Predict the structure.
Amino acid sequence: MKLLTLLPRLISILAIGFVSIFSLDAFDHGTFSEQLFDFMMHMIPTFVLIIILAIAWKWELIGGIIYVLLGIGISPLIYTNSYLTIILITFPFILSGLLFILSHFLRKKSSKIPNP
């Protein structure tokens, strides 16, 4: 049960870290202020994902649903003639969303079972 609680959080943190790596390409041109502005613009998806993770951390069902919808909804937008792109970017969020939902229902079910 503890593994099922920690696993979606770990997957989400790693996936957010992976997505945030793409913002480092902002440092390849322009002045420092332009680079910093570009970097902050590229980090907006990371900030949104961190907010969703905070929601999922507190309310597993709501956060899990948001992660699943986000993963499914963004898949057509990032499709670039390669399913590998979809698998690398959206699958971790769909998986962690499903695990958050599963964790919610298992926790709810285990709290209803009386201890002998």
In short: The chain has one domain: 2-110. The chain has six helices and no strands.
